[in-house]
Amino acid sequence: MNFENILVTTENGIGQITINRPSKLNALNKATIQELHDAFEALEANEEIRVIIVTGEGEKAFVAGADISEFANFSIQEGAHLAAQGQELLFDFVESLRKPVIAAVNGFALGGGLELAMSCHFRIASDNAKMGLPEVSLGVIPGYGGTQRLPQLIGKGRAMEMIMTAGMISAEEAFRAGLVNHVVPQAELLDFTKNIATKIMRNSPFAIGRAIKAINANYKDGINGFETEIRNFGKCFGTEDFKEGTTAFLEKRKAEFTGK
Fold first, then answer.
1. Which of 148, 121, 120 lies closest to 133 in space, CA to CA?
2. Which has the closest alpha carbon to 42: 61, 67, 70, 15?
3. Is there a contact between 104 and 87 (Cβ–Cβ < 8 Å)?
4. How far apart are CA 94 and CA 88, in angstroms?
5. pLDDT computed for residue 98 by the predictor
6. Helical (H) or strand (E) element with 134
7. Do 24 and 111 touch, CB atoms closer than 8 A?
8. CATH number for domain 6-200, candidates 3.30.70.890, 3.30.1360.70, 3.90.226.10, 3.90.330.10
9. Which residues of the chain have pLDDT under 50?
């Protein structure tokens, strides 16, 4: 896969997407959002890939926000279309992938950058990371799911304060709030993240995909998460992974899962 704004590598079952616009602090523009969609879609379809990691090039930024120059003169209708298209193409798309997506947050994750990290299934931050949704300081609100996912992750009150003050929080503050799962030194970020990815890959890919679907259902209006869990629990019983996992357990050996 050849891209202008991102780098994609695959190794040992892990696909890594690196947003590569360091001169722009890896800001998201329309072209980068499209490339990210294409890369996630390709890695999802690649049967050899079990886990996807997304990070930013360099030590300064994961993604420092959206490229404001692209929409500074938009009309009401154009603004609404920008948000709807972006959510469908990237942010909702990532959240719904059946393969685990981990955000390795290195440096600034602001605006659309934090929204991208929040759309991933969980987040690991370097100790120099700074996170925030500064949109109201520009006269707009978060438009790529920030007003929805941030309260889900850290609670309504904390989310209200972060969004209304347009302030940044440190990696340690993000950890205490539950926004990130771990904080590690910058130099150890990718190795630490890959180590967790390796632990994930020991388990059934089919079951993990169904667990993602069931967990997400709890946050969708009009969907009964318990019913989704029951349905997907049942589907696991018809898989080779279930047969292998239970047989391996009874035979006291390590399971070899295929995702089928």
1. 148
2. 15
3. no
4. 9
5. 96
6. none
7. no
8. 3.90.226.10
9. none
The pLDDT, as a whole number, for residue 67 is 79
The number of beta carbons lying within 10 Å of the beta carbon of residue 88 is 11
Query: What does the pLDDT look like over 88-112, one tens digit per residue?
Result: 999 999 999 999 999 999 999 999 9
Q: Where are the domains of the chain?
A: 6-200, 205-250
Instruction: Tell me the pLDDT of the chain averaged across its residues.
Output: 95
Identify the DSSP state of 60. S
Adjacent-strand bridge partners of 131: 109, 169
Which sequence positions are flagged as catalytic? 115, 135
pLDDT in tens, 52-64: 999 999 989 999 9
Q: Is 12 left (phi over 0), alpha (psi -120 to 50) or beta?
A: left
